[in-house]
Amino acid sequence: MSGRVSRPAIRLLLAISLTAAAAFGQIQFSKPKPAKPLPNPSIVSVERDEVVSITKQMLETREIPLDKEDCNATTGECTLLSKQVVFIKGITTKSQLEHYCEMPTVDVRDWGRGRYVLRFQIAPATPKTTQVAVYAKFEGMMNSATGSEWVTLTSKGELENLMLRCILDRVDGGDCKDVFR
User: Fold this and answer.
1) Which of 8, 21, 45, 124 has the most CB atoms around its CB within 10 Å?
2) For 96, phi and psi rounded to 5 degrees?
């Protein structure tokens, strides 16, 4: 037998080495696993008034305007409602809406804007703990030949989870900058 390698063998070796290189490129050793979403509502180990204050500060820091604050004297439950916030405009609107919302699968719409309204429900659980729930209502502006229209979308819970993490971080003395990367 001579020292020559046949062409099919060379092709096979080349295909195997390319496949192995592609597979190795997909392996990531240092990628952290995403954190599990927090339960919504969550229990926080501080009194209700402090959670209300922390939530207001967080909204102010994020430049999310507060629309209404309603505290029930009987139950102790407070509801904070933000004004509508347009969080995305332009070309990246669809991808941002897909990140935060369940999007129609067979939809060929031209999305021009995205907005949300946040609702925080804060109620005393015990004298020293508070239950905090966050809800977001998303809408996307659909542009069509007949005009523009806001369409209500179902939240995936991403923004709500970020807000809860920020509140918990502030309760622990942080500034929640690491939460919003």
Assistant:
1) 124
2) -70, -40
